[in-house]
User: What shape does this take?
Amino acid sequence: MSRDPDTLLTVRNLAVSFDTRQGLVAAVKGVDLTVRRGEVVCLVGESGSGKSVTGFSLMGLVDPPGRVTADELWFDGRDLMRASDREKDALRGKDISMVFQEPMTALNPGRTVGSQIAEVIRIHERTGREQAWNRAVDLLQRVGIREPAQRAKAYPHELSGGMRQRVMIAIACALTPKLIIADEPTTALDVTVQAQVLELLFALQAETGAAVLFITHDLGVVAEIADRVVVMQAGRVVEEGGVRQIFEQPRQAYTQALLAAVPDVDAPRDRARRLSRQPVLSAGGTP
Ligand SMILES: Nc1ncnc2c1ncn2[C@@H]1O[C@H](COP(=O)(O)OP(=O)(O)O)[C@@H](O)[C@H]1O
Ligand SMILES: [Mg+2]
Assistant: This one.
């Protein structure tokens, strides 16, 4: 299974716990997860169910005293349980990237957005300073930011929330990742901007063929974008299936309750039909 060429990510028995003053908090308790190449898997569940911690642990972003264990962790045909820290660092940020819920906290407030994009490129590729900067400007244009050469010199606080999230998406897509982990990437944005940022993310996804692990509590969004849905509750996966199956025949009462909490969820639509497959417009509708 792990060596199936269509399978991009396989995790078996992932567990994450935190040593706190109140004692050991088991945030993730034996999660199995598979993501196929190019697939959009939505990780859903109520607040505190362990979605973000699952995403962070895959990105290697759980720091001690947090503890991450797994029986198996395969990515792109490689056994990451046997990979060195260096190999994993080379992968993370390049082949696996992440878009965070709060772009303001994920970006460095003291550095221009252009230099932050360029830095990610330079960490992973032998690229000259000027070349990396030019690529950063190109990326800003690709994510729909007008006057990208100008905007590249802006600091995060000088940009709107929507533009900051576009910058995060530029960073996440800079090195054509095979897997993008997006943790509630539109939750912090105005409603009008949310749809634009989603469109952008999935236009880029269609363009590059990246798989997306999309973390959300918004079942309305899930209906629009998911191929498959994984439902978490209290650190465990309680149900998973194709998006139609989850919406039309949820087996668990918990999943039914999540669905019932969202009024007027449309029936899942074919993502290919729903979201444009056209290349991203260079400067359209910058929020
Ligand atoms: N650094 C941490 N230290 C202690 N507990 C944590 C830490 N990060 C997350 N948790 C706990 O892990 C559980 C899962 O959190 P999280 O993955 O953020 O939930 P979700 O993203 O599904 O809302 C929660 O109970 C949370 O309080
Ligand atoms: Mg979360």
